[in-house]
Specification:
2 domains; N-(1-d-carboxylethyl)-l-norvaline Dehydrogenase, domain 2; Rossmann fold
Length: 293
């Protein structure tokens, strides 16, 4: 049965994710995007309707989904006279797919609850391709009752989803995800660089080692482009630096030691200086290749 939903934020991730609520879930969707033209394009493709403010978009919606840029963007679309929280009805659930801080998740969870609204922080992993193919991994934090209500909708664009704890747990899990990827990509970059310098056939090497303990998604999907120096696609360095900044800030708060993450973050800052702000995160190898010359 079609349920009234709203979607806030139609970037490279949110645009296809919102589409799956229609094509797979069969739900009625009203969208809001800061750039109205993008919202109109989405409506033309998927149906539904658009609204000029988050508050108007969420009117009468039982479930509201958001995927915006950062903490400030998230507050901008939820709090204030035109924010979603002012327009949501009691009993509705807000699901936030933004990669943001655990602090803002807890803050908005409290504000939502005060208005009788559920809130689930649910950052995603899988990149643009995962969003377009409806196979994202969704890491959730919040109250079990709210998650249980939202789970069937999240399933429209996820192949893995799980409630990992109270409010903020989804964002903490996403931080662990990004910490792990950062260290892995640096190791992969160094391995491929080392192999090239040693005169090895990288494709043949990866065919062997990818079947052992070194194997990973990054190795399977990025080794060819890394070896060729191709980075004009994928998850941008700018976005990764934003995410790693959140990780390092949380680490300062909870006392965790992240020496490799801090180092890789600095390597990414050098990639930005090279002009690679929009390059894929696998571009760490570009620094090593530059230094060999």
């Amino acid at each position: 049965m079609a349920i009234r939903t709203a979607w806030i934020g139609l970037g490279v991730m949110g645009y296809p994710m919102a589409g799956y609520l229609v094509t797979k879930g069969g739900h009625d969707v009203t969208v809001y995007n800061r750039t109205g033209q993008k919202a109109e394009e989405w409506v033309k493709k998927y149906g539904g309707k658009s609204a000029p403010t988050p508050r108007q978009a969420v009117a009468d919606a039982d479930f509201v989904f958001a995927c915006v840029g950062n903490d400030d963007d998230l507050r901008a679309v939820t709090i204030g006279k035109d924010g979603a929280f002012e327009g949501m009805k009691a009993g509705a659930v807000f699901v936030d797919h933004t990669t943001a801080s655990a602090d803002v998740a807890r803050e908005l969870h409290g504000l939502a609850k005060a208005k009788g609204v559920g809130f689930v922080d649910a950052p995603v992993s899988g990149g643009q391709a995962g969003a377009e193919n409806g196979v994202l991994t969704v890491m959730c934090g919040g109250d079990p009752a709210d998650y249980d209500k939202a789970a069937p909708f999240i399933q429209c664009y996820a192949r893995m989803q799980k409630l990992l704890g109270p409010s903020g747990a989804g964002q903490i899990t996403k931080m662990i995800n990004q910490i792990s990827i950062a260290g892995l990509l640096q190791g992969l970059a160094e391995g491929i660089h080392f192999g090239k310098r040693a005169g090895m056939d990288i494709e043949a090497v990866v065919e062997v080692i990818s079947k052992g303990a070194a194997g990973s998604w990054q190795m399977d999907n990025r080794h060819k482009t890394m070896a060729k120096g191709e980075f004009e696609f994928g998850f941008a360095v700018d976005w990764m630096r934003k995410d790693l900044g959140i990780c390092l800030s949380e680490a300062r708060r909870n006392g965790a030691h992240l020496p490799v993450t801090a180092l890789v973050d600095q390597f990414y800052s050098q990639v930005q200086e090279m002009g690679g702000k929009r390059w894929d995160t696998s571009s760490l190898i570009a620094l090593l290749e530059k230094k060999k010359k």
